[in-house]
Amino acid sequence: MASDQAAFRRMERHLRGGAEDVDYLIDLSNVVRETALGGEKARELGRLRLVLRALREFTGDDRVTVHAIADDSLMRPEFDGEHGHPDEPRLLREWRDRGLIASVGTADLDLLEQADEYRIRVVSGDNFVGHRAEHPWIQGNRDRFLKPVRPRGGPVRLVLRDMRVYSDRDISREAEKDRLRGDGMLFQGRPRRKVLERSWRCPLVGCHPAPAFRRRRVVCRAHGTLLTDTGPRRPRVQLKVMVDGQCRAWHNLVQDEREEFVLGRANLDRIELCHLAEERRKPISREHLVLTSRRGALQVLDTSLAGCAIREARPGGRPTAWTDLPRLRESPQRPRESLFRPFGPDDEILIAPGVVLCRSGQQWPGERPAAVPAKAPRRSPRADEATLPG
Fold first, then answer.
1. Beta-sheet strand order (sheet of 260-263)
2. Which of 65, 107, 208, 348 has the most Cβ atoms closer than 10 angstroms to its Cβ?
3. CA distances from 121 to 43, 86, 118 (A)
4. What is the DSSP string of 299-317?
5. pLDDT tens for each residue of 66-90
6. How far apart are CA 213 and CA 181, in angstroms?
7. How far apart, in whole angstroms, are the C-alpha atoms of residue 365 and residue 348?
8. Do residues 370 and 253 make contact, with C-beta atoms less than 8 angstroms apart?
9. For residues 334 and 330, what is the distance between their CA atoms, to the nearest angstrom?
């Protein structure tokens, strides 16, 4: 796919610097990097030309307008060699400087925020699984996303996508991958375990740092300061409190066989009353559940007055039936240790009607102190938080 400056310049008539009055949004990084659309290089601007042509055919409008949003990494000079021609990265940076396209830290966030706000269709091959907690409207959507495809080497065309419904665990796992990728913590698609398995200290007092890998150095994601290695990182597991199917609180637990974590009414105090009314909190005991780690596996004990139920939410299938957890109060003759039950990665515990405790799909939850509750995130598209929940 050779460089064609005249053809590239003709694309400018379709480009707009904002989403307010355009017909479509384009995930520019996704399109330029999609090798299935043709070309031999990792990045080729000619793929955008093919997509715009397909968009004109899809709409029947030769004047169709788009707002194209790219990740900042698409503009970095150190990656210029990945383009099909040296003119291409220079032109992309020119378009950015002229305001014809947008370049942001992570394009997905802006794309979805603007698609939601302006009700615009998005052209992208991305499934956006990691962003479905913030944007539940994506789940099962069949009319807001278009994918560019090139069947058997023919012309590129656009097809409406079925975005499917992903489980909360899948969403958590993909959100973590997105965060690690943005932090430079993936190498050849795999987590940098030598960094993630260590604990780190930020020189700024009070910071619980999330490490990022920048220019071969481990730095604080929030402050950019060089981090100090303080030894092995104790394994953590993230618990999520779901209210009517939405995550409303989460807790990072250190897996330590010497400690127990008590979950009760006080842990839910930071959930807003509009999400969990006072009358719905009443069945939840002050000490409702006890969780501990034994031989690296999480276990749970029901210490409530009302009782709890547990089931397995099978990936890709129907969950099992709810079964009662053994209750400490009803089994005084049995040793307390024998009443603990495994709390597996796919298990869900019914705390009260509509209130469910489950495990996040994250493998590397952020460095918050154990048992400190936090609300589910309300992240602006350009925010850079120190720790992201799953």
1. 260-263, 289-294, 297-302, 341-342
2. 107
3. 24, 31, 9
4. EEEE--SS--EEEE--TTS
5. 999 999 989 989 889 999 888 999 9
6. 10
7. 19
8. yes
9. 9
